[in-house]
Design brief:
- With 205 residues, this protein is an alpha+beta fold.
- It has two domains: 138 residues; 57 residues, Roll (SH3 type barrels), CATH 2.30.30.
- It is 38% helix and 21% strand.
- Strands 4-9-5-6-7-8 form a six-stranded antiparallel beta sheet.
- Strand 2 and strand 3 form a beta hairpin.
- Bound molecules: zinc ion.
- Zinc ion (ZN) binds next to helix 3.
- This is SprT domain-containing protein.
C-alpha cells in the first residue's frame, strides 16, 4: 500500500500527501507507534548510522496526530539547521513549527477551535512542552466518543432513584419493580412508564 493511503488512516486525508512528501524529502523513518502515556510522539536525530526517526502514537485522533507529526518534523528540521545549538522547544523550533503548520492552515484542515488553540499555543512564549494542555484539551474533543456504547446500561442496572436517558433524549427516574417491569417516571412530564429490565439506556450523572 502506498504511503498516502496508509497515512490517511491516521491523518486528515488532505494532510496525508504533504506528510508523505516530508517523509521522503527529509529521509525520515516514520513509525506509527503503540500508545505511550508519557508522550504523543517522538523525534530522534541521526545516530550510529541510523537516520531521522519519528514516531507518533496510533490512537490519536486525526487532528492530534497531525499536530504531533508537525511538532516532530519541526524538531527534525531544527536539528538539520542547528544540531545541538538549538533548545528542543526554543525559538528556532517554534519558528519552524509555525512555518511548517502554515500549509495545513492554508488548506483549512483544522476546525476553527483547533486552529485557535494552535495559534494560541504558538503565540504563547511560555508554551514549550510537547504536550500543551490547552491545545491537547481542545484536540481531545475530537476523540471518537467511545462513551456512547460504553455508558449504555440496562434499566435493571440503573441504581434506584437514579436518572437515565433514552436514545431519544428523554430522561427518567427509576423507581421500584412492578411485577417484571420497572416503574420509571419521566422527569419532564411526571408520567409513569414501565420499562423492561433489559432495555438499554444511558446513565445520567
Ligand atoms: Zn517536542
Amino acid at each position: 500500500m502506498d504511503k498516502i493511503t496508509v497515512l490517511s488512516r491516521y491523518l486528515p486525508p488532505d494532510a496525508a500527501p504533504l506528510i508523505a512528501r516530508w517523509i521522503d524529502y527529509f529521509n525520515c523513518e516514520f513509525k506509527v507507534s503503540r500508545s505511550r502515556n508519557s508522550k504523543y510522539g517522538d523525534y530522534r536525530p541521526p545516530y550510529q548510522g541510523k537516520g531521522h526517526r519519528i514516531s507518533v502514537n496510533y490512537n490519536l485522533n486525526p487532528y492530534a496526530f497531525l499536530v504531533t507529526t508537525v511538532h516532530e518534523f519541526a524538531h527534525l528540521h531544527t536539528w538539520n539547521e542547528h544540531k545541538f545549538k538549538a533548545k528542543p522547544h526554543g525559538t528556532e523550533w517554534k519558528s519552524n513549527f509555525k512555518r511548517m503548520m502554515r500549509p495545513f492552515f492554508d488548506k483549512e484542515i483544522f476546525p476553527q477551535d483547533v486552529k485557535r488553540a494552535i495559534v494560541g499555543y504558538l503565540e504563547n512564549p511560555a508554551a514549550s512542552s510537547c504536550t500543551d494542555l490547552t491545545l491537547f484539551r481542545t484536540l481531545r474533543n475530537y476523540d471518537v466518543k467511545k462513551t456512547a456504547e460504553a455508558a449504555m446500561i440496562t434499566v435493571e442496572k440503573v441504581k434506584a432513584n437514579s436518572l437515565f436517558k433514552m436514545k431519544n433524549g428523554r430522561v427518567f427516574r427509576k423507581e421500584g419493580l412492578i411485577r417484571k417491569r420497572y416503574r420509571c417516571v419521566e422527569v419532564k412530564t411526571g408520567l409513569v412508564y414501565l420499562f423492561n429490565p433489559v432495555a438499554e439506556v444511558f446513565e445520567v450523572e
